Amino acid sequence: MKIKKLLTAVLFTALVLALAACNSDSNTNTSGSNENKEGGHFVYVTASDAPTLDPHGMNDTASTHATTQIFERLTDYNEDGTVYGVLAEEFTPLDDTTWEFKLRQGVTFQDGTDFTADAVKMSLDRLLDPELASPKAVLLNMIEEVIVEDEFTVIIKTAGPFAPLPAHLAHNAGSIVAPSAIEEEKNGGKTVDENPIGTGPFLLDEWNRGSEIKLKRNENYWGNVPTIETMSFTVVPEQSTRMAMLESGEANVALVGSSDVTQMESIPGIELTHIRGTRMDYLGFNMNVEPFDNKLVRQAVSMAINKQDIIDGILEGHGIPAVGPLAPTVVGNYQGLTPLPYDVEEAKTLLEEAGYADGFTTTLFVREGNKELANIAVFIQSQLQQININVDIQSIEWGTLLEKTGAGEHDLVLLGWTTVTADADNGLYSLFHSANLGPSGNRSFYKNERVDELLDYARSETDQQKRNEAYKEVSEVLVDEVPMVYLQHPDFIYGTNGVESGLYIDFSGIPYFKNVKLN
Q1: CA triplet 176, 182, 185: central angle to 5 degrees?
Q2: Which end of the chain is more exposed for a tag (fewer CB within 10 A), N or C?
Q3: pTM of the model
Q4: What is the pLDDT along the chain (519 residues), one digit of tens a residue?
């Protein structure tokens, strides 16, 4: 059994992002070979169905994993976090607020229509349309105007200087949807969710909601046509069943929980890939409800939870405790923070000071189908019992959990946030800016004028050192005010069985299947 351990060093800066003439031909994650077109059916087992196949829809992991196979973007990420062109062959900053994108020619959408500059404008305009109210719009809401210069040239203007624009366009939010699908939706026909048409290597074959998304390869793909003929995102809520399917070869790829790593390592034919990524798992408070509108209560909860015990006892060492909201792999992170310590007696004192000496009862939402999160929920329940907080755990289906927490129908929730651009803006702006309350990311309903001011400033500042200073102050405020308990930065661990080569996983844990070759 072979184990590949990949430590992703995400080191790109505004200078790297500003490089013109970036192209995809030299990048390993776009390589493939038509010589190995053997076909076959590929199975990826997942705990949750995608709530939507509209890439401008919900900002969640399951949707992103599925739509990444169907849609492409102007740019994408290399293994080291640098940005290269995909549907854009070149991108060049013309001035502080203007970027020129030269588009790839000869690309067609999966319905046979041509990819042109009009498609880029229609997609980005749709994403940013207030009527669509996309939770992902926050990733690109710095865009002021998209101009079609000619058939294969797009000019993008931003409201202020924004050096990380190419990195943000690489996010799933920047997916380019076929104009035919957008027009059909506008005319009252099928929605993009029902009719997802992109330029990607796979296209939708059939979708049995809640059960399976079946894709087939795009025979007219502009790049190297996938070797696998069909693939399925098969929904299996029980983690033990997913691992059994991986072991037997019924599944080819699965995200492996930390508690299953030792077992999977012992099974012949299974290969594990570890990614030290940009994710932060957290215990979120709804600051609109009592008693979590009280900072002392939030601090007490944080101080009653031993993060190291989670790493050692539940994640079995596959991750690191969080000192704040940003992982060490995120550009702009500051790891010199002084986190609230684990101190049960001090937590009791804070609760008493807040007027809750006798404790209280609350509810914790956790997504179903993840054994580690379920175990963390039980662990938190027992930890908070030490300070007389009784926790009722509710396991909820993924799409429902997102809807409820987006609407503020929760007390506590166990969630995670992956900084998919590897830049602190994405790791902080969505989660903590008051413009993004609810579905856009700020499910704590946190509001702080100084934090808003700093995040807005850092978005428009091109000097990385000045950005770092702003993010350092934001992180310090967030440690003190505790809109959430920053628990850990887990590793992404994927297991494969029957896969000869070609699986690529980026630093945000998103798998790409277009180059997969089965044994």
Answers
A1: 145
A2: N
A3: 0.81
A4: 444 434 333 333 333 333 433 433 334 344 333 344 578 999 999 999 999 999 999 888 999 999 999 999 999 988 777 899 999 999 999 999 999 999 999 999 999 999 999 999 999 999 999 999 999 998 999 999 999 999 999 999 999 988 789 999 999 999 999 999 999 999 999 999 999 999 999 999 999 999 999 999 999 999 999 999 999 999 999 999 999 999 999 999 999 999 899 999 999 999 999 988 899 999 999 999 999 999 999 999 999 999 999 999 999 999 999 999 999 989 899 999 999 999 999 999 999 999 999 999 999 999 998 889 999 999 999 999 999 999 999 999 999 999 999 999 999 999 999 998 888 999 999 999 999 999 989 999 999 999 999 999 998 887 889 999 999 999 999 999 999 999 999 999 999 999 999 999 988 899 999 999 999
Could you give the residue ranges of the DSSP H alpha helices within 71-224?
117-128, 165-169, 179-186
Strands of 174-241 (E only): list them: 202-208, 212-217, 230-235
State the first-to-last Cα distance of the chain, in angstroms, to the nearest integer: 15
| DSSP string of 411-469, one letter each residue | SEEEEEEE-TTSBHHHHHHHHH-GGGBSTTSBTT----HHHHHHHHHHHH---HHHHHH
Distance CA 296, CA 143 (A): 39
81 Ramachandran zone, left/alpha/beta (phi>0; psi -120 to 50): left
Q: Which helix (H) or strand (E) holds 338?
A: none
**Residue 328 dihedral angles phi and psi, to the nearest 5°:** -60, -20
Indicate the helix (H) or strand (E) that contains 42: strand 41-46
Q: Report whether 1 contacts 270 (CB < 8 A).
A: yes
